[in-house]
Amino acid sequence: MPPPPGSFWVLRLGNGKQITRAKRAAVNPLGYLGRFFSQPRLIAGWMFAVMRSCGWWVYVVYLPIFCIEAGLGDKVGGIALSITNALLFAAPALNRLVRRLSVRRSVRVAFGICGTLFCLAGLLAFLPWVTVALVMVASMFLVMLDVVGGLPFLMSVKPSERTEMSAVYSSFRDVSGILTPGAAWLVLWVAPLPAIFVAAGAGLLAAWTVAGRLHPRLGTLRPSRGGE
Predict the structure, then answer these.
(1) Average pLDDT, the chain
(2) Residue 226 lies in a domain
(3) Are 145 and 114 in contact (CB under 8 A)?
(4) What is the model's pTM?
(5) Among residues 164, 142, 169, which one has the least CA distance to residue 45?
(6) What is the mean pLDDT of residues 145-166?
(7) Given this model, what pLDDT does residue 115 score?
(8) Which CATH number belongs to the domain containing residue 193 in this structure?
(9) Which of 51, 90, 104, 217 is the most exposed, having the fewest neighbouring CB atoms within 10 Å of its CB?
(10) Is there a contact between 64 and 74 (Cβ–Cβ < 8 Å)?
């Protein structure tokens, strides 16, 4: 339904009371890098996003390659990815689970189990179907990290810096897109393909270790001061 005639005149578009001219230029997000590196909680939250994204890179790119090299065919990897995509519909249920647990516990459980399963998948590569099954189960916890993994960063950002810090946070996609193939190239230089799963698992377990330093009550509901 279009607005009534004259409504824009009332709002006085341009330089009126509702929409005013900016008093200063937009702040460059790069100017907040100093504040970012001075806050360990933000660095940890950004690291969680990078490692979660690296886990997805390994799952989406290297699991299908492993299936072909192991003689499972070129369809197994695609089926596995399709099943994992269907798990994204479970995000609301995972969100309710996270609300019952603390953010710290949820992040640690997801990183710990996911990292362990990736390592086992690489070590048991002589059983290809077991490796595929382990990596698929690990992807369930990557979905859980998609739900909760960004909360440590977002809950640590000052409200006045959310816009600029969000731009800094989003750099995890570019970093993981460079880090994953670079690390995979180094691994393949000295080891076979399944070692990539082990390397990814080690990175996820490193994030699990860092998550242990989060505040235990991060993200938990606190009683209001006026409550009984």
Answers:
(1) 81
(2) no
(3) yes
(4) 0.78
(5) 169
(6) 79
(7) 95
(8) 1.20.1250.20
(9) 217
(10) yes
User: What's the pLDDT band for 227 if we cut at 50, 70, 90?
Assistant: very low
Q: Number of folded domains in the chain? A: 1
Cα 221 to Cα 94, 99, 100, 216, 227, distances in angstroms: 17, 8, 9, 12, 13
Q: What is the pLDDT of residues 185-215, one digit of tens each?
A: 999 999 999 999 999 999 999 999 998 887 7
Under DSSP, the state recorded for 160 is G
Domain span including residue 100: 28-211
**Tokens representing 25?**
């230029």
Establish if 62 belongs to a structural domain: yes
Residue 217 in any domain: the answer is: no
Core vs surface per residue 108-143: b (16+ CB within 10 A) or e: bbbbbbbbbbbbbbbbbbeebeebbebbbebbbbbb
Of 56, 69, 81, 54, whose CA–CA distance to 182 is shortest?
54
Q: What is the pLDDT of residue 30?
A: 61
Would you say 114 and 106 are in contact if contact means Cβ atoms under 8 Å apart?
A: no
Report d(CA 161, CA 221) in Å as an integer.
23
Q: How far is CA 226 from CA 23, 155, 185, 219, 223, in A?
A: 39, 23, 58, 20, 8
Residue with structure tokens 């279009």?
2
